[in-house]
Design goal:
Blueprint lengths: L7 H12 L4 H6 L5 H14 L11 H5 L19 H9 L4 H12 L5 H15 L14 E8 L3 E2 L6 E2 L2 E7 L5 E6 L4 H15 L5 E4 L6 E3 L6 E2 L1 H10 L2 E4 L9 H13 L10 H14 L13 H8 L15 E6 L5 E4 L2 E4 L8 E6 L3 E6 L2 E7 L7 E2 L7 H8 L2 H11 L1 H11 L7 H9 L1 H18 L5 H10 L35
């Protein structure tokens, strides 16, 4: 069977074999060309004197004048070819081959099959999807690349469920030495903590960190002007490295860490028993990096990563003398109760800032609240969900007064005003159904206007009529009735705290029948 494509070197090879006296039959039996093809070549070569072994072999240019490289054209032309321009337009718009086939039938009366359209669209795709890349070179100590990848799953014994994990990977771009850690979350705190432990693992900091647009690092993904998280930007400033975010949807820009994540997932995780313990998993992972990953011959550098790292480590920036705080910045709203929420814990803010948005800076030990650049509150960090930390000066005056004047304060204050006032306040606060704390606070507040003596006398009269309430005592004072004579003056036994008098409208039984 004749070959569909014949190269120039094959023409020369047949001429050489003819010059050596080889027969046409033997050349055909070697399946180099058909009998017809060999005869045609011998005819041209003989006419040009190329079969003379004393003469030099012809060059490709000379051969090309007599022989042409050709390919066998397709026996049939695609039925879609007349509509090529329209199909290319639809393909660029993202329309599928099935929809294109239906549109051709509907609008142009196309009679071809869907398979013919699919083949034609595939050729267009190959034509327009040629993606040329270039190798990015980095100097020693210049940069590292970071990324997250899916990690192993752990079985939760108490709930019976499965917990997903993530693998944080940082790869030094020059030596390919890696740091990896299995974590439960991809939040900002985890991101910063993994960076710190990676720098300590390398005992140095690269000049630049290349990353994708993860939300824990980049607020706004943009080709020209990406916006970094305030937390990550402050962290980078503290350690002295530059944040270099890849353009959106362009993972090849950090291909070394992409390969690093795949390497960890495919080479470390399978067939390992972590005993549902993330600490044990990370211990095994670090041992594997030093024993296996670091001592393999890397496919690109053809060197061991740890061998190259011994050279690169001296070119990394020194770690800060004192490790910077890993601080998380977040926008929070001040609710009407004068508190903000952060990780299910509540922290107070000045009441004048209610309904405003503040910056919250969380570290391992403290919570700080800022209004723009002004520090407005400092709290200890809480970790148990539902806990609250409130500073009294943050509450409005009325709420502060209510909070400060608790029942014990009211009792102590009332006793200082007078015996009867103490008895009245004790009765109010001892009510088994209704909370009369505000009433007790209001009664004691009357002392400022009417004085201790008048207030105590008013309480004595209210007790006599068994009508101890804020409204009654205030009314007595307003009408000046606190010193009016009382029925049954001996109803009080030596002015003790126990009242033994009668009801409001009761009469003495000794005079009832007179």
């Amino acid at each position: 069977m004749a070959k569909s494509k014949f190269e120039m070197y094959e023409y020369r090879q047949i001429i050489v074999r003819l010059r050596l006296g080889e027969s046409i039959r033997s050349i055909v039996q070697s399946k180099l060309a058909s009998r017809k093809k060999v005869r045609a070549i011998r005819l041209v070569a003989s006419a040009q004197g190329w079969l003379d072994s004393k003469r030099e072999l012809p060059t490709d240019d000379q051969l090309s004048k007599y022989f042409k490289i050709s390919t066998t054209p397709p026996t049939t032309q695609s039925l879609v070819l007349p509509y090529q321009q329209q199909v290319e337009t639809w393909f660029k718009q993202g329309i599928q081959a099935k929809t294109i086939h239906a549109a051709l039938k509907r609008e142009y009366g196309f009679e071809g099959s869907y398979e013919s359209v699919a083949r034609f669209v595939k050729k267009i795709k190959n034509k327009f999807s040629q993606h040329v890349t270039t190798i990015l070179d980095f100097k020693a100590g210049e940069c590292a690349q970071v990324d997250f990848g899916a990690g192993p799953k752990f079985y939760h014994e108490s709930t019976g469920g499965v917990i997903s994990t993530w693998i944080f990977v940082m790869v030094l771009a020059w030596s390919r030495h890696i740091y990896a850690e299995i974590v439960f979350r991809q939040d900002v705190e985890t991101w910063l903590g993994c960076h710190r432990r990676a720098f300590e693992w390398f005992n140095g900091v690269p000049k630049k960190i290349i990353l994708d647009n993860a939300k824990c690092a980049i607020v706004k993904a943009c080709y020209h002007d990406p916006e970094a998280q305030r937390s990550y930007a402050e962290f980078a400033e503290s350690y002295g490295f530059i944040i270099s975010a890849c353009p959106p949807y362009d993972p090849p820009k950090k291909g070394r860490v992409e390969s690093g994540v795949k390497y960890v997932k495919n080479s470390f995780i399978p067939l390992r028993d972590f005993r549902n313990n993330i600490v044990e998993a990370n211990r095994q992972l670090k041992s594997w990096i030093l024993e296996t990953a670091g001592n393999r011959i890397h496919g690109t550098t053809q060197e061991k990563p740890l061998t190259l790292f011994e050279l690169e480590r001296h070119l990394l920036k020194l770690l800060p003398e004192h490790p910077p705080e890993c601080a998380v910045w977040r926008r929070v709203n001040v609710h009407s109760d004068c508190h903000v929420n952060y990780l299910k814990c509540r922290y107070s803010a000045p009441y004048r800032l209610v309904k405003q948005t503040l910056w919250l800076r969380a570290t391992e030990t403290t919570i700080r609240l800022f209004r723009d650049h002004e520090l407005v509150a400092v709290h200890p960090r809480l970790f148990l969900p539902g806990k609250r930390h409130t500073l009294d000066e943050h509450l409005p005056p009325n709420a502060l007064a209510y909070a400060m004047k608790d029942p014990q304060w009211c009792l102590d204050k009332a006793k200082k005003i007078g015996v009867h006032c103490g008895i009245a306040i004790h009765q109010l606060l001892s009510h088994s159904v209704v909370d009369y704390l505000r009433a007790a606070q209001g009664i004691i507040g009357l002392q400022k206007k009417y004085g201790d003596a008048r207030l105590d006398a008013a309480c004595r009269r209210a007790l006599a009529f068994q009508s101890v309430s804020y409204k009654t005592i205030k009314g007595i004072l307003q009408k000046g009735l606190e010193y009016e004579s009382l029925p049954e003056q001996d109803a009080f036994d030596d002015l003790t705290e126990t009242y033994t008098g009668h009801g409001r409208f009761s009469r003495n039984t000794s005079t009832l029948l007179q």
